[in-house]
């Protein structure tokens, strides 16, 4: 009980200090936004945030289940407002740090004495770094009313993690780190909600185009898309499931996963149930199995036996279409000459808490054109005994609205917006500020 009270006091003192530092402004945004573009080479989703003093625009990759915003502090990080979090501070407690102590080399930005350190992850190269320095600095992000961008707001003391340059390997060109949107308290959604006192919710709408931006909105709706349509209406809701074990590249950490899991109960192809081992759909006592949503994978990954069953059913439903040789990373490919439109291919349903509640994946999100004559089922064989049985990847998220309500632990999803003649590139980025 004493430890719990101490923890709460530390957190309250931190939030009060942050709130007081920004409370001098009369402008309190109800929501904030990030524009997001798809990198054509890596297929990663990229945004830009202002950071440091003086402000510098920093390109970052979206990591949906990431624990923290981490930045390369080894390559040219210069700021007069950089402050490492000290051992025993509220910032370190909030970050649930792994270690605390002194820099083992010459102290510098990203390696300070009497500082605390966590374990940031690069999911794109499946690498973690057990020495990320918990740090504070200025962060600038744009407000929104849900329809247009508004004023930029500046946060003087935003908690993030400093890392060495090697952790940026595998990121898109010019990217300096990742934006963690996970379920823990120093990820971007929780910090923004606590600082500005708006609901701890966020919504992502990823564009399938590499030329037009999608959007992430922090806070509640509306989420308006041209021509003046609130796409938060008519969402389908399902519980978010807590995996009590760390996942991703850090399965050994003694804390719950920061990633987003949902309870898929079965899979249908063209309305017909696919025979699969249902045990794989549940999270076992070691944290294995289940279904998570991830921007760390460009395509959905299925455990081997699930992949075999789904692709077999899919091929049977497309028996009149010519199969062609596999094109990596895909194994199930067809001649596009026999498919007039992706709307003609069978839908794949991820059935959730009941048969009436399902995430429908239409052809626009299931089929990938790999050449003018070849189209492939955009699912990847994840092999035997992966940590997670189903990983819903970026391609299957595009042009779908996903709303994550953290206090209620629910996911709202739209399935494809294309049938409403809307894409995630329809947000009006014309500023009213």
UniProtKB/TrEMBL annotation:
Residues 45-414 form the Peptidase A1 domain. Its main location: secreted. It is found in: Secreted, Extracellular space. InterPro entries: Aspartic_peptidase_A1, PEPTIDASE_A1, Peptidase_aspartic_dom_sf, TAXi_C, TAXi_N, Xylanase_inhibitor_I-like. Keywords: Secreted, Signal. Residues 1-23 form the signal peptide. GO terms for molecular function: aspartic-type endopeptidase activity. It comes from the Eukaryota. GO terms for cellular component: extracellular region. One of its GO terms (biological process) is proteolysis. Belongs to the peptidase A1 family. This is Basic 7S globulin-like.
């Amino acid at each position: 009980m004493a430890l719990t009270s101490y923890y709460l006091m530390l957190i309250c003192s931190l939030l009060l200090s942050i709130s007081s530092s920004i409370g001098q402004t009369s402008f309190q945004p109800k929501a904030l936004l990030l524009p997001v573009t798809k990198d054509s080479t890596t297929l990663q989703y990229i945004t830009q945030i202002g950071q440091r003093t003086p402000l510098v625009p920093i390109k970052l990759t979206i990591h949906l289940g990431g624990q923290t915003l981490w930045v390369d502090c080894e390559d040219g990080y210069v700021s007069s407002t950089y402050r490492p979090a000290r051992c025993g501070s509220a910032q370190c407690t909030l970050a649930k740090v792994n270690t605390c102590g002194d820099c083992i080399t010459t102290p510098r930005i990203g390696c300070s004495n009497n500082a605390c350190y966590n374990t940031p992850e690069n999911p794109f190269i499946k690498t973690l770094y057990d020495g990320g320095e918990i740090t504070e600095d200025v962060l600038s992000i744009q407000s929104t009313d849900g329809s247009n961008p508004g004023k930029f707001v500046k946060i003087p003391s935003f908690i993030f993690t400093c890392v060495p340059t090697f952790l940026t390997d595998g990121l898109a060109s010019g990217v300096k780190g990742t934006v963690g949107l996970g379920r823990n308290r120093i990820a971007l959604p929780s910090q923004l909600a606590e600082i500005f006192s708006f609901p701890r919710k966020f919504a992502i709408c990823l564009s399938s185009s590499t030329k037009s931006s999608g959007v992430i909105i922090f806070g509640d709706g509306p989420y308006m898309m041209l021509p003046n349509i609130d796409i938060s209406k008519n969402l389908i809701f399902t519980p978010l499931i807590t995996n009590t074990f760390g996942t991703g590249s850090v399965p050994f950490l003694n804390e719950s996963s920061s990633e987003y899991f949902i309870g898929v109960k079965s899979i249908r192809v063209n309305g017909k149930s696919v025979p699969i081992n249902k045990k794989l759909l549940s999270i076992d006592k070691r944290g294995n199995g289940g279904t998570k949503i991830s921007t760390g994978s460009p395509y959905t990954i299925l455990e081997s036996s699930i992949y075999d069953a789904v692709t077999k059913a899919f091929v049977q439903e497309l028996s009149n279409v010519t199969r062609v040789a596999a094109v990596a990373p895909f194994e199930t490919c067809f001649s596009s000459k026999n498919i007039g439109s992706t709307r003609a291919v069978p839908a794949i349903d991820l059935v959730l808490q009941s048969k009436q509640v399902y995430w429908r994946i239409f052809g626009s999100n299931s089929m990938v054109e790999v050449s003018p004559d070849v189209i492939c089922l955009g699912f990847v064989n994840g092999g035997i005994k992966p940590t997670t049985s189903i990983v819903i990847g970026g391609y299957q998220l595009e042009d779908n609205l996903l709303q994550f309500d953290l206090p209620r632990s629910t996911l709202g999803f739209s399935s494809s917006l294309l049938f409403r003649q809307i894409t995630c590139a329809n947000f009006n980025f014309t500023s009213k500020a």
